[in-house]
TrEMBL record:
Residues 79-175 form the Cytochrome oxidase subunit II transmembrane region profile domain. This is Cytochrome c oxidase subunit 2. Residues 321-386 are annotated as: Disordered. The chain crosses the membrane at residues 105-126, 147-168. It comes from Sphingomonas olei. Residues 358-375 have a biased composition (Polar residues). The lineage of its organism: Bacteria, Pseudomonadati, Pseudomonadota, Alphaproteobacteria, Sphingomonadales. InterPro entries: CcO_II, CcO_II-like_C, CcO_II_C, Copper_CuA, Cupredoxin, Cyt_c_oxidase_su2, Cyt_c_oxidase_su2_TM_dom, Cyt_c_oxidase_su2_TM_sf. It is found in: Cell membrane; Membrane.
Length: 386
């Protein structure tokens, strides 16, 4: 009897011991889930990006695609919004200046002129209709009216021109020393980007398709990526509060790099480098499109920019294999014209030709000599040997 009681007690103890780890496992899992984002953020922002655990799954497709900090697009900010009747909120100095120019000068001026013309038309229709004015006036000149309608448009144009010229000059102001250089290259029909000051980091951005447009297992657009036709598989990552030196060019036809929230629209022309500068003042995700008709799929060349704090931008650059320039180093990386002798495409073509035919010998060949004298010249050395 005693031995049977001991057997029952031993079996019950083993059962309880086996249930204890199973009951403790969910709590441990919840604890790991709560601490995982903090660990990822700490490792991602550290100087050594190789510290990331190899078996740690990314938290979002954007991280898996290009290692950029995950940000979701905010309504109205940086993207078109249904029924919005104003310009997108601006996050650059030039954009805010342009928006103020539009709201405080252009729009009131347009409203006043339209109302004035409408009032004049109504007054003329009523005052000079046939019933009220059976005998029309034969007046042909009025000096005061002629002076007014000549000077008024001149003053209006001057009022518009002064702030317009200042804004235009500010849009093409050269970037200061220490700016981050971004080179945007248009292709049919996608964008590629280079960071010449940061170790030559390069990314390529294609439009994300919808779920029903891709094969099983392929990445598709989600709401976190951005609006339809504007989300890209790789976002351009730029720092907040740091001047950006934007350089555009193209490999095939003319494109145009445009972000409405930055007040930026810069043509990308093959064989030419265009440049402008801007500074993003607010973190977020901002969308744009190619704004120059460039072929059949022109509507499928979106632009997505993720603006992050400088520390996260530096971590992203290191995760892409690049390096941050020195604090006092100016943004002066040499960016050759497409097709120039020192451009990347020409160098690649030369290397291919060398592998196929051998290196080109830059030697002057001796001209072939002929024993036959010149017969077409009536005199001089050409008659020698006749």
């Amino acid at each position: 009897m005693r031995s049977a009681f001991k057997g029952w007690m031993l079996a019950a103890g083993l059962a309880l011991a086996g249930l204890a780890p199973a009951a403790a496992q969910p709590a441990a899992t919840e604890g790991n889930a709560a601490s995982a984002p903090a660990a990822v953020g700490t490792i991602g922002n550290s100087a050594n990006t190789a510290e990331r655990a190899p078996d740690q799954a990314p938290t979002a497709p954007q991280v898996a695609a290009d290692g950029a900090p995950v940000l979701s697009a905010e309504p109205i900010i940086g993207q078109p919004t249904d029924r919005l009747m104003s310009i997108q909120p601006q996050v650059t100095k030039n954009g805010q200046r342009a928006m103020g120019f539009h709201n405080n000068i252009l729009l009131p001026l347009i409203v006043i002129i339209c109302l004035l013309v409408l009032v004049l038309l109504v007054w003329v229709v009523i005052r000079y209709r046939q019933a009220a004015n059976p005998i029309p006036s034969k007046t042909s000149h009025n000096t005061i009216i002629e002076v007014v309608w000549t000077l008024a448009p001149v003053l209006i144009l001057v009022a518009i021109a002064v702030p317009s010229i200042g804004l235009l000059s500010a849009q093409y102001k050269p970037a200061p020393a220490g700016a981050v250089t971004l080179k945007a290259i248009g292709n049919q029909w996608y964008w590629s980007y280079q960071y010449p000051d940061h170790g030559g980091v390069e990314i390529t951005a294609n439009m994300l398709k919808e779920k029903d447009e891709v094969a099983a297992g392929e990445r598709f657009r989600t709401d976190a990526d951005g609006p339809r036709l504007l989300a890209t598989d790789n976002r351009v990552v730029l720092p907040v509060g740091v001047p950006i030196r934007l350089i555009t060019t193209a490999n095939d036809v003319i494109h145009s790099w445009a972000i409405p929230a930055f007040w930026i629209k810069l043509d990308a022309v093959p064989g030419r480098l265009n440049e402008t500068s801007f500074t993003i003042e607010k973190p977020g995700v901002y969308f744009g499109q190619c704004s120059e008709l460039c072929g059949a799929r022109h509507a499928y060349m979106p632009i997505a920019v993720e603006a992050v704090p400088p520390a996260q931008f530096a971590a992203w650059i290191r995760s892409k294999g690049g390096s941050m320039p020195g604090a006092a180093q100016p943004s002066s990386a040499e960016i050759p014209q497409p097709g120039a002798d020192n451009s990347a495409s020409v160098a690649a073509d030369a290397n291919t030709a060398d592998m196929m035919t051998g290196p080109t010998q830059n030697a002057t060949a001796e001209p072939a000599t002929s024993p036959q004298g010149a017969t077409g010249n009536p005199g001089g050395t050409g008659d020698t040997g006749r």
